[in-house]
Write a structure and sequence with these properties.
- The protein is mainly α and 276 residues long.
- It folds into two domains: 83 residues, no CATH class; 147 residues, no CATH class.
- A two-stranded antiparallel sheet has the order 1-2.
- Strand 1 and strand 2 form a beta hairpin.
- Helix 4 packs antiparallel against helix 6.
- The longest helix has 36 residues.
């Protein structure tokens, strides 16, 4: 028999004598199984309980007297005093005998904690599923979920670093290597971020639209709008180069193309310590 939890009444001789022996009760709709009658552990519970109710001659006699007084039916009758008295006698001799033990005790004692942990983990799983649904809905509605916005900021910083690494390579074109102001890497990464944000919101990704976005997120570098738009045009050409170029030694792409749906899917995979 596998370990059993969540059945504090299992094998309890008093619970069996009062409730367990009654498998069904008569109703207007016919016999209806009791809670004990519906329990899948009832056959094993009955065997253990009956054995405990005959553990000594004294216990066996007290149990027999309770049954002769009507047992569970006697307790439910109008003349219940005899059955109550016999039940009290049975309880007394069982208490005098001492508690019963089994190999299932350790599991049964640990079961409430295990059950609470299971419920907590299930609740965590439901929250994770709901959170994934919520962020997917936001993205589908042209909104940028907070978790994705934070990831895109990390991506912006990463792309700025990759730009500088590639600019040091001999195979990099002049548009990448020549940087009089020293901020092409940062500006190009900012322009990339502005473009991707507008893509998610289903807005135009022209130089005009991206320059407008840079103004809104306060990354316009103090430039007038027309100058900013002109610089965005040049940045878009650099982005095209970076998304097609690879490092000669490693073969890695300098800038991977960004897909918001794939990024969000990867972000919503729970880490191992959270997985249920």
């Amino acid at each position: 028999m596998p370990p059993l939890g969540g059945r504090p009444c299992f094998g309890n001789p008093i619970a069996w004598a009062v409730h367990g022996v009654v498998e069904s009760i008569p109703t207007r709709r016919g016999p209806q199984k009791t809670r004990c009658g519906r329990c899948k552990a009832r056959p094993a519970c009955g065997r253990i309980s009956e054995a405990r109710l005959s553990v000594t001659a004294e216990v066996q006699a007290a149990y027999s007297n309770f049954r002769k007084a009507g047992g569970p039916s006697g307790l439910a009758s109008l003349n219940r005093e005899g059955a109550k008295r016999m039940l009290g006698g049975l309880i007394q001799v069982l208490v005098a005998h001492g508690e019963f033990t089994s190999v299932n005790d350790a599991y049964a004692l640990a079961w409430p904690v295990m059950r609470r942990e299971h419920i907590r983990r299930q609740a965590t799983l439901r929250q994770q599923i709901q959170r994934r649904r919520n962020v997917k809905t936001e993205l589908s509605n042209g909104q940028i979920p907070e978790v994705l916005s934070m990831h895109m900021e990390v991506e912006r910083q990463h792309r700025s670093i990759r730009f500088r690494e590639y600019a040091k390579c001999k195979e990099a074109p002049l548009q990448i290597r020549i940087d009089p102001g020293g901020d092409n890497a940062r500006f190009t990464a900012d322009a990339w971020l502005a473009r991707e944000r507008r893509k998610i919101r289903r807005q135009s990704v022209t130089a005009y639209g991206i320059a407008k976005e840079l103004k809104e997120i306060e990354r316009s570098y103090g430039l007038g709008f027309e100058v900013l738009r002109d610089r965005v045009n040049k940045a878009l050409k650099r982005i095209e180069i970076l998304e097609a170029a690879t490092f000669r030694e490693s073969g890695e792409r300098v800038w991977d193309r960004f897909d918001a749906k794939i990024a969000l899917r990867d972000l919503m995979v729970p880490p191992p310590y959270e997985a249920v």
